[in-house]
Amino acid sequence: MHSNFSIIVNTTDSFEDCWLPFFKLFKKYWPEYSGRIYLNTETKEFKYEELNIISVKSGLINQPWSECLQYAINQIEGEYFIYMQEDYFLNNKVNYKSITELYELFENNKFDCLHLTDQCTKGPFDISTVNKNLWEIKKGADYRASTQAAFWRKESILEIIRPWESGWDFEKFGTIRSCKSTSKIMCVNQDVYKKDINELIPYVFTGIIKGKWKKEVVPLFKENQIEIVYKNRGLVEKKDGVRVLSKVNTFINVVLKYLKNYLLEINYQKKSKK
Predict the structure, then answer these.
(1) Any long-range contacts for 10-13 (C-beta under 8 Å, 24+ apart)?
(2) What is the pLDDT of residues 197-223, one digit of tens each?
(3) Burial tier of 65 (Cβ tally within 10 Å: 0-12, 13-18, 19+)
């Protein structure tokens, strides 16, 4: 496997129970990868046989998602990486040949980001003139900046991350910031690469929801002799994914979030100019 890029597995120490399943499945389904894997921990160390895992150990306990990710990105050697999370459990063979070809396109054309699944955004898109298997995500598209698996250029993602944000905030406000920049953000052709049909990196799209195991992981773990005490976290029920809020409360919360982010951004820009 082409190893001119690293992989960041974004995590937190409290999700330590995901690491063994993640890396056992990674080794099974992506044996060709030989590069560095940065596990974004706060204090803990983790190793798995024959994988080059570097535990970041940032020391940033109880700090915002974005601040911890910024720290990890700054530890990476090299200019490019694939972003993943500790609950993106691989469930089938990674298409390493196509990943290698896409990486070369990504690097040679100096793209800022290349999303590797059809689960990142629904567009709108422009068909890429570089390669038929690529689409350019137009400015104005929701989730132009997404936390699903993607190639990123270090300096490009650092430009749109703000240290006070959660992952959900990054997808919303990082997307807005990406639209104000000259960044070239791409995704794979979603007519070619589809979930459960033709995936480059087949994985469970978030194996943990609101702190609980997604039921989809149970047969996957059983098949691979991964033992988990599910009662510790519990399993997601349909009602767990539903929040009942009045339209008024939802509107107020959204307005307050945008206002807070706007004020923080103004302060951030002032400090950056000093």
Answers:
(1) 10/40, 10/68, 10/69, 10/72, 10/83, 10/84, 10/85, 10/86, 10/147, 11/39, 11/40, 11/41, 11/85, 11/86, 12/40, 12/41, 12/42, 12/68, 13/41, 13/42, 13/43, 13/44, 13/61
(2) 999 999 999 999 999 999 999 999 999
(3) buried
CA 105 from centre of chain: 20
- What CATH number does the domain located at 6-206 have? 3.90.550
**Residues contacting residue 272 through CB under 8 Å, at least 6 positions apart:** none
Q: What is the C-alpha to C-alpha distance for residues 267 and 107, in angstroms, rounded to an integer?
A: 34
- DSSP bridge partners of 115: 150, 187
**Amino acid letter, residue 152:** W
Specify whether the CB–CB gap between 84 and 7 falls below 8 A: yes
pLDDT digits (tens, 9 = 90+) for 233-268: 999 987 655 455 566 667 677 777 777 776 777 777
Q: Which residues, 6+ apart, have CB-to-CB distance to 107 below 8 Å?
A: 4, 80
Structural domain spans, the chain: 6-206
**Cβ atoms 10, 86 nearer than 8 A:** yes
User: pTM of the predicted model, to two decimals?
Assistant: 0.90
Contacts 24+ apart (CB under 8 A), 97-104: 98/133, 98/200, 99/1, 99/2, 99/200, 99/201, 100/1, 100/2, 102/133, 102/134, 102/151, 102/188, 102/200, 103/2, 103/4, 103/5, 103/151, 104/2
